[in-house]
Amino acid sequence: MRWTLPTYRTEAPKCLSRSTRLTTAAVLALAVGGMTACGDGGATEAAAPFNASFCAELRKSHPELVGAELKVGTTVGQGNFEFITPDEPDVVKGLDPDLVSLVGDCLGFRSTFAQMEFTGLVPALQSGRVDLVASNLYVTEERARKVDFVTYLKTMSAVVTQKGNPRKLTSADALCGTTAAQVAGTVESEIIEKQSQSCERSGRAGITPLVFSALDQAVAATTTGRADFFMNDAGIAKSAVEKSPEHLDHGFLVDTNLVMGIATNKNKSELRDAVHEVLVRAEADGALRELQRKWGFGENQLIAPQIVA
Asked: Could you tell me the keywords of this UniProt record (predicted)?
């Protein structure tokens, strides 16, 4: 079964204003990289904001952010949200880095990205090791008790199977008795666990979990047949199939009724409010839609940014 989603670009789109760079050490050792200009390895000043007059007034309301250096937590390897390429392993590209650039350009702050495992993102934000998290992070009730969010995208999840879908995984009920490659800490991991419990309540075999710390490990487990499927954001899932069509196939969509957000520490409401003001104006001016279109997201995924606290 093939699902219908917007077509993702297979080549890396050009930089909107600047790329998010990680040093090679950051990619390999979870260190921190810096924000730099497109095509230039050195640090640069913020690019021109999308609405100069609005941003100039907003900076007056948030002078503490002008010239500030903010650290942003992220996990690369998540499709068009954040990824690196072999030819530029120190450059993080995607929707989330571009969103941070848009906000920073408007408010006048510079950003460095801290690469870490997905399960470490929220704890890093809570402890103050990072100022923001921009990393394909679903807004859930549990997470909202720990951090605040500014929403920016509606999403769905999807199941990806081995080539040809040999287990005929076309619905949630069909997952009973299978082996799932799961990424620890994700919403999809919770969905799979709940479905496994549903299988067992109905007298069928549950879902055997293979838990990994990174998406590429879950993809590899499915590709090699260790797992029957993995579940992730629908856009990421679609991208994975396009990158490995000889090994992977489409399963089915799962409507999670969730949105994604940029996360902030609950003690930094001023920063949260400033990010919200920028994204609300960017949505009204069309700049947010332009970024989402650039990275292949559909019109039905656009939402009005809101604060979830």
From this structure: Signal
pLDDT at 299: 80
Residue 29's pLDDT is: 29
- At residue 130, φ and ψ (nearest 5 deg) are -130, 160
Third-level CATH fold of 156-257? D-Maltodextrin-Binding Protein; domain 2 (3.40.190)
* 224-251: b (≥16 Cβ within 10 Å) or e: eeebbbbbbbbbbbbbbbeebeebbbbb
Instruction: Classify residue 248 as left (phi > 0), alpha (psi -120 to 50) or beta.
Output: beta
At residue 39, does pLDDT exceed 90?
Answer: no
CA 92 to chain centroid:
12
Report how far residue 37's alpha carbon sits from residue 21's, in angstroms, rounded to the nearest whole number: 9
Domain ranges of the chain: 18-137+270-299, 156-257
Cα separation, 200 vs 207, in Å, equals 9
How would CATH label the architecture of 18-137+270-299?
3-Layer(aba) Sandwich (3.40)
Give the pTM.
Answer: 0.69
Residue 3 pLDDT class (50, 70, 90 cuts) = very low
